[in-house]
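[step 3/7] inverse_fold.run input=structure_tokens len=676
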């Protein structure tokens, strides 16, 4: 997917760090908002982990780029991702996918849905993933990096006789246990490399304690009611809980020197009401959203590995209440020209506590409240040149709410808070189909004026600083082309060029900061990023006008897909090749899949000979057997829709970049990946 990167960042428990066109938000476990809003069937996920991407009944994944918030949901600066599952209906359907690979990799996915009684239907889906460690710990000789996870989701649906009313109740639960390791590839500002990706070296005590888990679950009620042919009403009510813990050997060496533990929880409630009014020329959407989050984050003192450290350095709480009223109007000026205008009023209030009183060297307990109100507009024009060609232009405002820093240090006497960041986004593009809709061409050019960026900097062990860093410019182009060469052969490709860098900003170079070829500032200073004196008076070297941290400059990909039907047998062969350039490192991904299926059920085989990041470890292999009650293959559908999104913590080829202390995250059937 052009301009999209999904990674896992250590310390932001249970949450993927999502970047769209270089806009990623802050990698912080508490006190900040998500730059990209993720929804599961319209339900907002404040901590978007990867579990839902592996469900068997995912129908499609939609990616909306640019600021969002005038049509539904929470405000989002970078964009939105909508995960749409297949709703149960009056037809019995189901499927299962079981595979086994090297490293004792076991993957299982399945779903079943169908009618219960008149108007009522239900569905159940789940997934299970397990593998042994991919890495050899050269200190103990043991394998390291095993993982076990599962997800289960159930849905009940009611539709009345005239289909004017529908109600869907859904519930889900997921749990993941895994081992992760750090590897330092920078010695100060000097890049020393990643070494052998198959091996790590950590002490035996840390190996026994290292491990992370994530548990999440929730319930939701979605009601749709058609008042008449012109008015539809929608209500979405949800409650979710997330709990996560990370335990790392932070020094990443054979010495039992520095171990860390963290614990993070999030309880959210969300209520949204929407009304949609449509006539021949006028389309109006109006709604209101109420969202609350009660979150905690606690960190153990840094020291030699042991399991008895108290989570008191610091212990934080955050209570957020957010209200919004939004609307969008689309008016057809002519049969081919449509004007679009939207507006959102957003109000947020966050109460927080940062408590260092229980730390080994006791500090203060600081409290605070952050209030902010903002009006967020958007506008645009759509020109339908022909039934198959649409040209559009739009301008919108992005907004990221203010917040607080969770780890300012025990010596901090006042809270470290930061202001909201803002962005004005301009975009023009074309969406088109040609040759009897056998060729699809989409192109877009965009320019973002980004100001008061919220920037996080590591200033010491367990110490961070978050401040607003002036301005940045994000500009780029995206091109996607796909064509049905024959009835059996599809060829597609995408190219993205992105230039996202600070306009006037000197970043302190710490052990976790890559140079990426950026020029240095004129002289070392004793000040932080925005000119404030450093708390510890450290003399630092700084780099001038660095790129935004999750903005790959060049990205391209090619997909070749061949499908053949011979009698009751269906064969699909799909090959992908991709490249993403990120500063010093470029990452490559390759994957080929062969699936042979005998309809309506039977034996299915797939071949996946090569998946590669910067360097591929031991080559994986897998065999797959599956029975289907429907002719359409759920495995193929998941393979085409999810591979663009799941770069980390899942079973798809990862793209990543190195940033100082690098985290290696094992992936089923892939081997390993990197995350900052």
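[step 3/7] decode complete -> sequence:
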């Amino acid at each position: 997917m052009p301009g999209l990167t999904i990674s896992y960042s250590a310390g932001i428990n249970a949450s993927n760090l999502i970047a769209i066109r270089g806009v990623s938000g802050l990698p912080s476990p508490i006190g900040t908002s998500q730059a990209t809003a993720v929804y599961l069937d319209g339900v907002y996920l404040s901590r978007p982990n990867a579990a839902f991407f592996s469900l068997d009944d995912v129908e499609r994944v939609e990616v909306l780029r640019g600021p969002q918030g005038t049509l539904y949901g929470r405000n989002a600066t970078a964009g939105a991702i909508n995960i749409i599952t297949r709703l149960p209906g009056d037809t019995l359907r189901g499927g299962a996918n079981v595979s086994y690979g090297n490293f004792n990799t076991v993957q299982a996915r399945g779903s079943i849905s169908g009618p219960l009684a008149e108007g009522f239907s239900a569905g159940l889906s789940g997934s299970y993933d397990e593998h042994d460690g991919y890495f050899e710990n050269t200190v103990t000789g043991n394998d390291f990096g095993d993982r076990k996870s599962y997800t289960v989701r159930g849905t009940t649906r009611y539709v009345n006789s005239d289909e004017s009313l529908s109600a869907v109740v859904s519930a889900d639960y997921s749990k993941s246990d895994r081992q992760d390791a750090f590897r330092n590839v920078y010695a100060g500002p000097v890049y020393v490399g990643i070494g052998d990706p198959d091996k790590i070296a950590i002490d035996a005590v840390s190996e026994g304690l290292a491990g992370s888990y994530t548990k999440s679950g929730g319930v939701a009620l979605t009601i749709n009611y058609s008042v008449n042919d012109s008015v539809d009403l929608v209500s979405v009510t949800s409650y979710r809980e997330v709990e996560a813990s990370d335990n790392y050997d932070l020094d990443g060496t054979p010495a039992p020197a520095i171990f860390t533990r963290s614990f993070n929880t999030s309880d959210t409630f969300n209520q949204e009401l929407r009304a949609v009014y449509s006539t021949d020329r006028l389309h109006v959407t109006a709604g209101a959203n109420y969202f609350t989050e009660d979150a905690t984050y606690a960190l153990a003192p840094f020291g030699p590995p042991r399991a008895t450290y108290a989570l008191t350095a610091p212990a934080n709480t955050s209570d957020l209440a957010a209200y919004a009223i939004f609307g969008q109007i689309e008016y057809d000026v002519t049969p081919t020209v449509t004007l679009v205008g939207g507006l959102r009023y957003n109000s947020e209030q966050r109460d927080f506590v940062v408590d260092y009183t229980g730390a080994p060297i006791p500090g203060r307990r600081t409290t605070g409240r952050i209030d902010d109100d903002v009006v967020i507009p958007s506008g645009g024009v759509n020109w339908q040149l022909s039934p198959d060609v649409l040209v559009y232009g739009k301008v919108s405002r992005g907004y990221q709410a203010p917040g607080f820093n969770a780890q300012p240090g025990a010596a901090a006497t006042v809270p470290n808070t930061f202001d909201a960041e803002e962005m004005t986004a301009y975009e023009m593009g074309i969406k088109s189909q040609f040759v009897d809709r056998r060729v699809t061409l989409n192109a877009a050019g965009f320019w973002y004026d980004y100001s008061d960026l919220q920037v996080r900097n590591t200033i010491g062990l367990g110490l961070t600083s978050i401040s607003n860093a002036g301005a940045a410019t994000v500009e780029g182009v995206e091109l996607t082309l796909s064509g049905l060469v024959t009835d059996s052969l599809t060829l597609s490709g995408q190219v993205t060029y992105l230039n996202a860098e600070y306009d006037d900003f000197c970043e302190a170079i710490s052990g976790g900061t890559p140079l990426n070829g950026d020029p240095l500032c004129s002289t070392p200073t004793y000040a932080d990023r925005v000119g404030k004196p450093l708390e510890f008076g450290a003399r630092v070297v700084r780099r001038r006008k660095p790129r935004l941290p999750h903005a790959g400059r060049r990205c391209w990909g090619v997909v070749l897909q061949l499908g053949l039907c011979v009698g009751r047998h269906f064969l699909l062969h799909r090959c992908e090749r991709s490249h993403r350039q990120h500063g010093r490192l470029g990452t490559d991904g390759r994957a080929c899949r062969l699936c042979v299926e005998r309809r309506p059920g039977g034996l299915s085989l797939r071949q996946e000979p090569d998946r590669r990041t910067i360097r591929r470890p031991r080559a994986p292999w897998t065999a797959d057997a599956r029975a289907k009650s429907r002719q359409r293959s759920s495995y193929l559908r998941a393979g085409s829709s999810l591979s663009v999104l799941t770069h980390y913590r899942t079973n798809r080829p990862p793209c990543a970049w190195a940033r100082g202390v690098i985290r290696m995250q094992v992936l089923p059937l892939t081997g390993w990946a990197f995350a900052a």
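[step 4/7] annotate
The longest helix spans residues 634-642.
The helical segments are 204-209, 634-642.
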